[in-house]
Amino acid sequence: MKKYIFLLFYMILSTVNAQALTVNDVQKDVICSCGCGMVLESCNCGTADRMRNEIREMINQGMSKEEIIEELQAMYGKEVLANPPKEGIFIGLWYYPVFAVGIGVAIIYVLLRRRNAEWYADPDEVINEEEYDLEH
Amino acid sequence: MDIGQIIIYLALLSSLYSVWAYYSGINSKNPKLLYYGERAIYLTSFLVLAASLLLWYYFLTDNFWIEYVASYSSRNLSDFYKFTAFWAGSDGSLLLWALFLAGYMVAYLRIEKKDLLSAYTMLVSMLVMVYFLLLLSTVSNPFQGLGFLPVDGIGLNPLLQTPEMAAHPTTLFVGYAGSAIVFALAVSGVLIADDKWVLRARKWIVFTWVWLTQGIFWGAIWAYKVLGWGGYWGWDPVENASLLPWITLSALMHSIMIQEARRGMKLWNIILAFITFEFVILGTFITRSGVISSVHAFGQSNLTPPFMIMLFLIPLATLWVIYERKDYIKSQDIVESPLSKEATFLFNNLILVASALTVFWGTIFPLISEGITGFKVTIGPPFYNQVITPLSFALIVLLGLCIAFPWRRAHGKELVDRLKIPSVAFIIGLGAGLILQLRIEMILATSVFLFALTTHIRQYIRDTSAFKDQYGNLSSIKIILRRRRRYGGYTAHLGILIVFMGVAGGIYTQTYEDVIMSVNEQRVFGEYTLIYRGLGFKEDNLKITWYANIEVWKDGKFVTVLRPAIEKYKTGNEEEIRRVDLYTEFPKDLFVILNGAEQNRALFEVKIDPTVNLIWLGSWILTFGGIFALIPRKFVKEFVFKSESEVET
User: Measured between CB atoms, does A115 come within 8 Å of chain B?
Assistant: First the structure.
């Protein structure tokens, strides 16, 4: 059994590694520099075509996604980023969800340790009781 | 002054009187004053309806003396779109809000008991009504005269001239107005320190949720078919504004069950009702003021001050109520065991609320960044996809788990038994995904989908047979109707699962291409062959249309002709929009946009989304689940409860 589980995970990992970088992977994270404000993926103007060609060339040169986005930022400024950078004030944006979930988990941990709850009614049935009450 | 404006003033006076009558009636325990307050609600509702009908009449008769009509209508507009132009701008939208709220209050008075909880609920709801009538009387007057009669109106934005836009704002606003009743019930219930508000609020919560679901659904369909960028959800601030209250209301729908069963979560439930209503007011503000486009728009919109006051007053009032009733809402234990449905509901609330706060944070973050750094950062789909994806996967797993866990306490062996088949389904999903060489995300999505789906199917069968024993051999249909809340919930879950697969399939397996085709040229896209047969042209009194004729062939057989088009409107700013055309083979869509054309060739965007129709199907199932859970007892009592008592005797 263990052997099969290991094999399954190995196959999953191989799937992850086998995926080569495509223009589509990068253009989802970049804003078209024509000024339309759209993600490059959704824009069909001439500027968008030119940017896609630039990305294609960088992929052919063997650059990683992060390197390509860094290069595009150097060329067009930080307005080109569809994702804000993970630095300065923008750190708050990225880590806020983790922070919110962390606080929530801590509260749930405390609630789950207190186990003297009383049982009043089955929520499936109370609707019938409430409505019976209304009818009479 | 237009008569419509006079009607609005009268409605405002009537609503103020109702507030006074309810307030005084509650304080002095005077039933006569409460009766007058109730009559004033009927009068206010009638006046708001009269004002709305008058505005519709002005649209249908091209009364361009009225600025609002001249701004959003024109003589060549069809009657149907003259009717829908009512809510094309902020003034009409706020009147529509007030109209739906009036409808809710009349319905509440007709349905619910006339007790102290109802008196407080009507008082709070009426305060919301006063707020909207004040806006309509001052900064957002739909009956403002122009002072002259223009030859024609500016016209309705072409993007709004679609049936989807007739449905989207109306359904969404019915949901928005419902959230005011839910909030009013929550505040009133806590004020009188009585748990029965959760029992009474249940139907209003589900009803509101059903309409919010429909509002989001129609918005997504509109974006998909009309906006012409090939997607249905772009994490735009306005889209987010419709999603936020839906998420928090979904959390409330689950957490009030814990209050029903355990009398706990009182503080949390009033907070959720408050957040939902706050999001609704924020959503109305964002949609109608354009404020989120820039921090500077805060000063430009005359709706900003009153909405900011309202957004400040709602939490203030909620905090005051919580403080006043701190003894009633003091913390109580809510679980007997961490292996229980109650515990899974806690995690469900965590994921939903974390998702809502994340979407909210992403929506307002451009304003914060512009205010602090002067640089308005773009929060695009990648941020939301990155953050919401893990939360949505966790939610789907939890959807399966919460069904498998019983109320109160689960026993280890029983739990293993319940999760055995779903776990096998999960592994089958992984294996099948690997064999089909899907993307890793799609493999995981399929696996968690199968896990949750099988827990639901298994539990559906198991519950029905267990209840059969409990109710002495009632038929399955009677059991389902008796436990309609549970089975409505299961059905809604099924809808969510189908929507999840539809979204995942689109994100991870969609294919698309931009292509230039010459006349009579053939191109192969997936299993389809497309042949471009040239450009057509037509003109009517509203617009000029250029459309491409594209034959679609599959397996050597002719299937259909698609006619994606570019339309240029003659009114307003002579806007030019793309009309998408689709060929649907459930669950997939072949989606073609015409992006430009010359004499002998044209530029198209062609997409194949293999699962998009699952989203629409799932949304309808989701809606049906909510409606099923709402079936009143009186509709089924003859069929279910009478025969049940016969069985028992």
Answer: yes
Residue B27, judged by CB atoms within 10 A of its CB (0-12, 13-18, 19+), counts as: exposed
**What is the C-alpha to C-alpha distance for residues B116 and A107, in angstroms, rounded to an integer?**
34
What tokens were used for A82?
A: 């569809």
Range of the domain at B111: 1-158
Amino acid at B474: L
B358–A100 CB contact, under 8 Å: yes
DSSP notation for B515-538: EEEETT-EEEETTEEEEEEEEEEE
B169 domain residue, yes or no: no
Could you say which residues from 70 to 89 on chain A have a Cβ atom under 8 Å away from some Cβ of chain B? 78-79, 81-84, 88-89
User: B263 in a domain, yes or no?
Assistant: no
Q: List, in order, residues 6 or more apart from A49 with CB less than 8 Å away.
A: none
Question: Is B202 within a domain?
Answer: no
Closest CA to A119 of B406, B135, B268: B406
- Do B564 and B592 form a contact (C-beta atoms < 8 A)? yes
* Residue B524 and residue B487 share a domain: no
Evaluate whether residue B132 is within a structural domain: yes
pLDDT for B575 equals 79
- Amino acid identity for residue A24 in this structure: N
Same domain, B528 and B578: yes
Domain co-membership, B31 together with B147: yes
Nearest CA distance, A29 vs chain B (angstrom):
6
**Are residues B94 and B106 both part of a single domain?**
yes
Tokens of B453: 């789906």
Q: Are residues B605 and B638 in the same domain?
A: no
What pLDDT, on the 0 to 100 scale, is given for residue B293?
56
CA–centroid distance for B359 within its chain: 15
Measured between CB atoms, does B114 come within 8 Å of chain A? no
Query: Which domains, from first to last, does chain A contain?
Result: 1-83 (1.10.8.640), 86-136 (no CATH)
Q: Which of B92, B126, B158 is the last residue of a domain?
A: B158
pLDDT digits (tens, 9 = 90+) for A95-128: 888 899 999 999 999 999 988 888 888 887 777 7
- Residue B99 to residue B76: CA distance in whole angstroms: 28
Do B65 and B15 belong to one domain?
A: yes
CA distance A61 to chain B (A): 23
**Residue B78, number of CB atoms within 10 A of its CB:** 11
**Are B200 and A130 in contact (CB < 8 Å)?**
yes
For residue B562, what pLDDT band results from cuts at 50, 70 and 90? very high
**Residue B59 sits in the same domain as residue B94:** yes
CA atoms within 13 A on the CB side of B193: 9
In this prediction the ipTM stands at 0.85
